What we know:
Blueprint: H1 9-20, H2 25-31, H3 34-54, H4 58-83, E1 86-90, H5 95-112, H6 114-128, H7 136-149, H8 159-166, H9 178-201, H10 205-213, E2 216-221, H11 224-238, H12 244-249, H13 260-275, H14 278-284, H15 290-316, H16 324-335, H17 340-351, E3 359-360, E4 363-364, H18 365-377, H19 387-398, H20 406-428, H21 433-471
Antiparallel strand pairs: 1-2, 3-4
Helix pairs in contact: 1-3, 1-15, 3-4, 3-15, 4-6, 4-11, 4-13, 4-15, 5-6, 5-7, 5-9, 6-7, 6-19, 7-9, 7-19, 8-17, 9-20, 9-21, 11-13, 15-19, 16-17, 16-18, 17-18, 20-21
Amino acid sequence: MAVAWWSILPFVLLLACIAVLPLIPATEKIWDRNLVKLTVALVLGVPIAVWFVLGGAGSVVSHALVEYFQFIVLVGSLFVASGGIFLIGDIKATPKNNTIFLAIGAALASFIGTTGAAMLLIRPILNTNQDRRHRTHTVVYTIFIVANCGGLLTPLGDPPLFLGMLRGVPFEWTFGLWPYWLFVNTLLLISFYGLDRKMYAKEPAEALETDAKHVTKLGLRGASGLAFLAVIIIAVAFIPSIDMHAVESGHASLPQYVPWREVVMLTAAFASFLFGDHGARFNLNKFTWTPILEVGALFIGIFLTMMPALAYLGQIAHRIPLNEISLFVFTGGLSSVLDNAPTYVTFFEMAAQVPGEPRVAGVAETLLIALSLGAVMGGAITYIGNGPNFMVKAVADSADVEMPSFGGYVGWSMTHLLPVLAAMVLLFMADGGWWKLLGVLLTLLVLGRAGLNMEAGRLEAEKKTGSNDRTNEPGE
């Protein structure tokens, strides 16, 4: 089904609603209601679905609805299972401890998935920092690292890589991406540490005193939730879902009509909710359904209005000159606003037509690397680039963290994430000594900014210490 450029306008309008309505005083409180979000999503998405069905592209709609079902079951089941796990005790919310949290998340993301790692760690991170005033940057970097860039090393880390495995990419091939994973995540962790040092020094003295008073030994409540979480992750990796290709071809057997993977995940989530530690879930984690309902309401509209955008991309894709850098830029840029899984598939099929050796699953390896990096890391650029992004934001909102708006978050990614990704491209992909030199300079600028933030934090701490000493002098 051919579509015109204007068919993407409902998708753009939905993004505009997500970005703008929370900022307008007259619509801010109205937009907070999930029913309003669902209404807007359906008003924009249902006409698109009807248009596609009447145009003979009903299979596209069915694919979108099945993918939405699979997406919401995955995110929802992980949300429920992780909601019954609580890291009891309280460590000091220092820059060192926060950075360790994010580093652990970067390692976990590749093995339990970015969604699983993000849902498992966001609550402990928020609980650790609950006495601090400046927490926004910590959640933003959690999205950068744990919900996206950490999930590069295995096909379990992010859906695009899993689709690549289904298309013949060997499971162990993604381990070879470790230099990119290490470079990006190390720079992001250093950047975060510097920024958190600066923000920590700005904390009111009473906030740090309260945080220090609450320090207790760490432990785990709701450990059974880890078993349910493991079942969900194993289901993602090894249990098939409904076989849409067999269904559409008319050759599907009865088992191929059943979404076995989602049945197992829902069963595990239900068992976690029913038999898990209720004290950990409701008293400690203060579990509510609001975050997952918000994601469900918005993403049904995103999946439906995204259909013409993906169709239009397929129509014009052959005009895009493909090399390592252009493939990374287009895949990453489009993955930031479209679902990164179908974006990956679209460019995977295109890259298979480009000559080059050696080849992996029929694609030149250099192009497959660029494609994988763009799909995984580009998903961090906006709230909707990857499923866990919005989930992390929603959980943080429910914990009264002042999260940036859609546009505000893009501002964060432009100034804190994109310089790191650009340095990676220049150092690892660009040809020519001058480009490599530019990559080195950009890396030094990123490190220099982290150093300046650390120095600002040190000076602020010294100023506070000096002020306290003067206040305590006799006669003052």
